Amino acid sequence: MEPVEVGKSLVVRKENSYGVISDETIANATLDCDQFVSSQGYDAIQATETEREFPLAYSIVVHQDAPIVERLLRAIYMPHNIYCVHYDLKSSAEFISAMKGLAHCIPNVFIASKLERVQYAGISRLKADLNCLSDLLDSEVKWKYVINLCGQDFPLRTNAELVSDLKELKGGNMVESKWPRAKTWRWSVQYVLKDEKNELYGSPVATSEKKLPPPHSIEMFVGSAYFTLSREFVNFVHWSILPKDFLVWSEDTYSPDEHFWATLVRVPGVPGEVPRTDPEVSELTCKTRLVKWASFEDLLYPACTGKHVREICIYGAAELRWLLNYGHWFANKVDPTVDPVIIECLEEMLGEKQLHLQRKVTH
Asked: What pathway, per the record (predicted)?
């Protein structure tokens, strides 16, 4: 928050004086895996014994901008963790090639075995994560928790710090989960994704058909698409009839990813249950990711110093201290074409912490 340094970062942003790397560049770089892994430092990353005893899994749903996806992967990478990447079937050939290259070169990174054409506010967004969760359960890595991310997320904590926080959950889930209030319209009627000519709409469209109540007398909650889930809970979702029925019921709702997880973690008796008697778990209480909405700026948090896209702040460098001090694990959203300095600062901060930890391990 040094005023002079913040000013310098604004000059960099205004001048657009940084280079933009293309998807094709990442794809070409992964043609030589040994060189790529070495040059990007993946082979030098070491973990403590505490970290190795508490492996993590990631579901990363992406659709564009391979360079920032690679930077995200590098920032969260540990050789004992496991990473599922789901790319959108609508993505460009160059982006898909880059994702396949990253999965080919980096150990324990793989492409989801089943891929979706992801449609805004449709069931496909939820299914993308479910596809990855299924693959992650089948992997040889016996991970303790899974976190889902998108391409514009970036870590605010090292893997060691994340493991320390996750251990304190003692098997509980970290999911935004609130009473639905004015959002019941999302499942009060059926929504369709295609018109009579079988052509896709831009987003789900409401019909006049009323929906039946959710199965098993499930009480509805809303939250976000993003989660931190225990392995035991994911097993419950994968194998039990209740979540399967709830998924089928949710297929013709609006933005089911924003009520599916929020509701299931409240079901009495599920692993890592969030009791219905607990206060609402808001996005500021849920540590998984820190999002800044335009409508809440100056009320809940300081104004965005980057740029707004669809009411969400893409962070600027002047928000760095706020991001690091708030206690969350990931920041959403970052974009080097909006502000490259904040990502470089976060990379440097994480790198210094990791280097300090590795020196302690080796000595």
From this structure: Protein modification; protein glycosylation
Q: Length of the chain in residues, anyone?
A: 363
Write down the mean pLDDT value for the chain: 94
76 membership: H or E segment, kind and range = helix 66-76
Rounded distance between C-alpha atoms, residue 35 and residue 191, angstroms = 49
- For residue 258, indicate whether it is catalytic: yes
Per DSSP, 330 falls in state: E
* Domains assigned to the chain: 1-19+290-327+336-363 (no CATH), 21-187+218-284 (3.90.550)
Helix (H, G, I), strand (E, B) or coil at 29: helix
Q: What is the DSSP letter of 310?
A: T
19 CA to centre of own chain: 26
CA distance 304 to 291: 11
Write the pLDDT tens digit of every residue in 121-145.
Answer: 999 999 999 999 999 999 999 999 9
Torsional sign, CA 321, 322, 326, 328: negative
Q: Which of 70, 176, 258, 319 is catalytic?
A: 258
Write out the H or E segment, with its range, that includes residue 291: strand 290-291
Contact 287, 327 (CB under 8 A): yes
Crossing angle of helices 241-250 and 231-239, in 10° steps, is 70
Helix, coil or strand: residue 110: strand
- Using a cut of 0.90, tell me whether the model's pTM lies above it: yes
**Which string of DSSP letters, residue by residue, matches 200-257?**
EEEEEEEEEEEPPPPGGGPPP-B--S-EEEEHHHHHHHHH-HHHHHHHHHHTTSSSTH
Q: Which strand (E) or helix (H) includes residue 194?
A: strand 189-194
Do 227 and 148 contact (CB within 8 A), yes or no?
Answer: yes
Which of 20, 40, 152, 22 shows the shortest CA–CA distance to 93?
22
